[in-house]
């Protein structure tokens, strides 16, 4: 199991589940504002929630549903 305490960096692409259940792919660069959650098994991606901001300050949030591709080194 892994527990995420914090993250810093930006992503190029994020696949997120919206509160309505719709899965959307967002393209960046998108700056990580918040990343939280845990991974209990290799197939358990739905427990990670992320909030991202675009260069024009548009905020995107959701549960990670697929690849989260880094734009810069992520710590």
From TrEMBL:
Keywords: DNA-binding, Nucleus, Transcription, Transcription regulation. Pfam families: PCC. GO terms for cellular component: nucleus. The keyword Nucleus applies. It comes from the Eukaryota. The PPC domain mediates interactions between AHL proteins. Transcription factor that specifically binds AT-rich DNA sequences related to the nuclear matrix attachment regions (MARs). This is AT-hook motif nuclear-localized protein.
């Amino acid at each position: 199991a892994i527990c995420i305490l914090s993250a810093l960096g930006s992503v190029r692409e994020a696949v997120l589940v919206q509160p309505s259940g719709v899965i959307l792919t967002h393209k960046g660069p998108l700056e990580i504002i918040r990343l939280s959650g845990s991974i209990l098994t290799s197939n358990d991606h739905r427990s990670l929630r992320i909030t991202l901001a675009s260069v024009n300050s548009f905020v995107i949030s959701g549960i990670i549903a697929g690849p989260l591709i880094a734009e810069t080194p992520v710590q």
